[in-house]
Amino acid sequence: MLGTSVVAWLSLVAPSARAGGYMYADSGIVASGRGGAVVAGADDQFAQYYNPAALVRMDRPTLNLGLSGVTQNVTFTAVDEAGVAQAPVSNEAPPFAVPQLGFASPIVPGKVAFAFGFTSPFAPGFTYDPDGAQRYSMIDTLIWNFQIGPSIAVRPIEQIAIGASFQWQVLRVEELLKVTTSGSTDPGGDVLVEAKVNDLFTPSFNAGVLVEPVGEVLAIGLSVQPPVKFVARGSGTLDFTGNGLENILDQAVWVDDDVGLEISLPLVLRGGVSVRPTNELELEVDVVHEGWKSLKDLKVTDINITVTGEALGLEQPVDETLSLPAGFQSTPSVRFGAEYDVAEPVAVRAGGFWESASLRPQQVSVTQTLLAGFLEQGSIADFEIDVLRKDGSLLPVIGG
């Protein structure tokens, strides 16, 4: 029904693909080069992100400036309601710029250290053909999440250091896709939908411990990032231009300038062990747990949009509050990394990781978002339009 199609607009604000639910890709060149295995071996400003206790290893003031271009090569082949494969579509987005900025310095060398920085998970952009077969899952998406703030690390005894980072978290989501009012993939039933929401300030923190029982030969690192609840606000748009219903509606474009989105990113636990068989070589194994199972739904609030067609007495409001089910599973991962110091300041790094998925196979789409769960029955044909007039009669389906 039209109400169902409008609900799909709200599912736009679901997060885009993480390897789990919304991927925590490794932040920083060093971590990426080591497959994300730096919880026990971090020794630069990016310890703020992985294990702030490791900042005590800083032996000099360091300014970090960087810019990474992140892209993801994805090709998606849709299958229509008759089981026929459609023309494949590929991600056309240019590399997404991810800046890095920070300063770290020892206060008391080996005992107390301080850092202030900007960190952000590496996340690619996604842009697909607006008329491609994937258009009911995604046309364009931008998801930007970063943290900025200070960190402190203290070594109370020789073998143990503790640290914490205090974070100002920011989340921005922009997504564009189409839904259908015709119950088929006929473009005449397409409605262009767009959402833009922001949470410009949510406080959070992470904390860590570093244990070095035998000097630099062996290190054990543990850190925790508690769940972060965002309450984002922004706008949503329904554009019926070109749709078969356009001529019977009071207007083609419907906008709600103030909807809310409540979403929690999960608890993240990290643990790692690093060894130095020689002064030049470090090997590390980490285990990471992302608690996506706790994300049971997304709650969209303060919805105020009613699609009307006065000539026919058509009036279709959307519920003021909607809960969109998630159905995610928690995701473990194992990371392996190695670093060899060739000569100051040159180092060679290698690494890899294995990570499970938070979505069941039948939930996976081009976006790997909650929209996949919303379409879990398997076909866009599950959308139908049953529009009630004010007098209780049904408006027939109108195709373009």
What does this structure look like?
Helix content is 6%, strand content 48%. The protein contains 4 helices and 22 strands. The protein has a 16-stranded antiparallel beta sheet that branches. It has a two-stranded antiparallel ribbon with strand order 2-3. The chain is elongated, with a radius of gyration of 24 Å. Mean pLDDT is 80; it is low at 1-22 and 367-400.
Salient structural properties:
two-stranded antiparallel sheet; 6% helix; 400 residues; mainly beta; 16-stranded antiparallel beta sheet; disordered C terminus
Offer a concise description of the structure.
By secondary structure, the chain is mainly β. The chain has helices at residues 2-10, 29-33, 47-50, 370-374; strands at 62-70, 75-76, 89-90, 96-108, 112-119, 126-127, 140-157, 160-180, 190-211, 218-225, 228-239, 253-265, 268-275, 281-290, 297-301, 306-309, 314-317, 322-325, 331-343, 346-355, 387-388, 394-395. The chain contains four helices and 22 strands.
Helix content: under 10%
pLDDT average, as an integer?
Answer: 80
Count of distinct strands:
22
| Residue runs with pLDDT of under 50 for 5 or more positions | 1-22, 367-400
Structural class: mainly beta
Main sheet properties: 16 strands, antiparallel
List the helices and strands and how they pair.
Elements (H helix, E strand, L loop, with lengths): L1 H9 L18 H5 L13 H4 L11 E9 L4 E2 L12 E2 L5 E13 L3 E8 L6 E2 L12 E18 L2 E21 L9 E22 L6 E8 L2 E12 L13 E13 L2 E8 L5 E10 L6 E5 L4 E4 L4 E4 L4 E4 L5 E13 L2 E10 L14 H5 L12 E2 L5 E2 L5
